[in-house]
Amino acid sequence: MNHEQIEGFAALFGAVPKLTEIEVRHEGATLRMRRNPPALTVAPAAVASTSEGGTALSQAPKPSFVTAEHVGVFHLARVAVGEKVKAGQPLGQIDTMHLLSDCKAPIAGTIAALLVEEGQPVEYGQALIELTPEAS
Q: How far is CA 89 from the centre of its chain?
C-alpha cells in the first residue's frame, strides 16, 4: 500500500462522518482507522420555583443507556424516539455470528435517542439507546 492510497482512504474516512471504523487489507498490509465516539452531553439542570416564591435548582432526570453486552451487528426492534418502554422490554438484538441476544431496557422510561442505526456493527459497552427515566 503506497502513500497515495493511504491518503485516499483517510480522505474517504474524513468525508463520511457516520463511518466510525475502516480496515483495509492489501498485499499483506493492513490499514485501520477508528473515529473516537462522540462525547455524550448531559442536559443542564432545570430551574423550578419554590412555594416561597424563590427559585431552586432541580436536577433533570439522569439518562440511562441500553449498552451492547458484546460485539456484533445491532438490529433495532420496532421502537422510536418518544416511545414509552417498560423495564426489561427488548429494544433490539445483537447478532454475533448468527447468535441473537436481546438488548433490554434497564429501566422504565421514554426513548430519548437512538444512538446506533439498524445493521451497524457495535462494540462491547457501546451505548445503543438513550432512555429518560419514567417520572416517579
A: 17
Model pTM score: 0.57
- Distances in Å between the Cα of 130 and the Cα atoms of 25, 127, 136 are 35, 7, 18
Question: Domains (ranges, CATH) in the chain?
Answer: 1-37 (no CATH), 61-136 (2.40.50.100)
List b or e across 98-135, with b for residues whose CB sees 16 or more CB atoms inside 10 angstroms. eeeeebebebebbbbebbbeeeeebeeebbbbbbbeee
Averaged pLDDT, groups of 10, the chain, 136 residues long: 76 72 79 65 47 54 89 92 95 93 94 93 92 85
Cα–Cα dist 64/87, whole Å: 11
User: How far, in Å, are 1, 6, 24, 39 from residue 28 at the CA level?
Assistant: 9, 14, 10, 35
91 CB neighbour count, 10 Å cutoff: 20
